[in-house]
Amino acid sequence: MKDSLDVRYALALFTVAKEDKQIKKYQSEMKAIKLTLDENQALLNLFKSEFLSLEKRYQVVDKVFKKNSVAVKNFLKILIKNHRLNTYETIFHRFNTLCNEENHVLEGIVYSVDKLEEKKIHELEKALKAKNKVDVELTNRIDPSLIGGIKVVINNHIYDYSIQNELMSMRNQLKV
Which of 18, 64, 101, 175 has the fewest CB atoms within 10 Å distance of its CB? Predict the structure, then answer.
């Protein structure tokens, strides 16, 4: 039940973005807000705090995200008012997926042993765009079992350039 409510929040913002013809702008702003909240637990806790009035929390939203559009700031205020920040990651992810579907962008995950630099992720996205003839958006996830290298999963297609995969391949060849 909780998940369907989160989907409705994402869909509501997506509908506004589409009506305003600002899908890419709102998507970019939401990514920046998510990154800020992910990296700043104190700010997230402040927005969730019942010790501060809603008005004070709204003032913080306006100050911290002053460059963002009114619609996106208002959406964040609605999440605060309705106590939905516990599931902001799900809401933001679903909103991002709706935007990507609308713009024909494939979403994928790049697994690596350590966090990849943004530059490396963009290089991978560019290479995969050339291969797939469509824009690609990758999210980096850590997987120590890879030993080294990377593995990219887009829809049901796996591009595995990990040391783990190489070792398994060698092992299978030795068994033949």
Answer: 175
- Say if residue 131's pLDDT is above 50: yes
Q: pLDDT over 70 for what percent of the chain? A: 98
Task: Say what the pLDDT of residue 171 is.
Answer: 82
DSSP string, 67-134: TS-HHHHHHHHHHHHTT-GGGHHHHHHHHHHHHHHHTT-EEEEEEESSPPPHHHHHHHHHHHHHHHTS
C-alpha triplet 141, 168, 166: angle, nearest 5°: 65
CA-based end-to-end distance of the chain: 51
What backbone torsions phi and psi does residue 158 show, to the nearest 5 degrees?
-115, 125
**Predicted model pTM:** 0.79
Alpha carbons 9 and 171: distance in angstroms, whole number: 49
Biggest CA–CA distance in the chain, Å, is 70
3-state DSSP percent of the chain in helix, strand and coil, to 5: 65, 15, 20
Question: What are the residues whose beta carbons fall under 8 Å from the beta carbon of 165, sequence distance 6 or more?
Answer: 149, 151
As a whole number of angstroms, the distance between CA 122 and CA 141 comes to 15
Pair of tokens at residue 46: 């402040």
CA distance 123 to 104: 19
Q: What is the mean pLDDT of residues 32-36?
A: 96
